[in-house]
Specification:
Elements lengths: L2 E4 L17 E7 L6 E9 L2 E5 L7 E4 L4 E4 L7 E6 L7 E5 L2 H17 L7 E4 L1
Antiparallel strand pairs: 1-9, 2-3, 2-8, 3-4, 4-5, 6-7, 7-8
Length: 127
């Protein structure tokens, strides 16, 4: 299933949908060096994805403006996707518990990107 959301040149979408403010919850994040999956608390705030050990310790930030968000095609039945920020060389690997949870996060991230005045493209594709 693929959803495409179009945006006008001023950054507002054609349907004027509301951004899912403050989406939050537990996801798994693959660690940078050991490549192990570790649970982390994530919270979407405007065009930033904050994460940390728990809801009170959101110490790290992923800037979503201009980031590339892609679903990972895998045969193991996991619900993974990647976020590669525009201004960083690192790619973040995330995993949800269900396909609907994965879709919900990816759509919310897409909507957050489109809400930015600085978004890089006129369409955001969620697969």
């Amino acid at each position: 299933m693929m959803a495409v959301v179009s945006a006008t040149s001023n950054g507002a979408d054609e349907n004027s949908f509301a951004v899912k403010e403050d989406k939050k919850g537990w996801l798994s994040k693959r660690t940078h060096f050991t490549h192990r999956w570790k649970p982390a608390w994530f919270q979407l705030k405007e065009t930033k994805l904050l994460y940390g050990e728990n809801e009170e310790k959101l110490l790290k930030t992923i800037n979503l403006v201009g980031a590339v968000v892609e679903a990972v095609e895998g045969g193991d039945g996991s619900f993974e996707w990647t976020i590669t920020p525009k201004d960083r060389k690192r790619t973040f690997f995330l995993r949800a518990g269900t396909t609907s949870e994965q879709q919900g996060w990816m759509e919310a991230i897409c909507e957050a990107q489109l809400s930015s005045r600085d978004h890089a493209t006129n369409a955001c594709v969620v697969q």
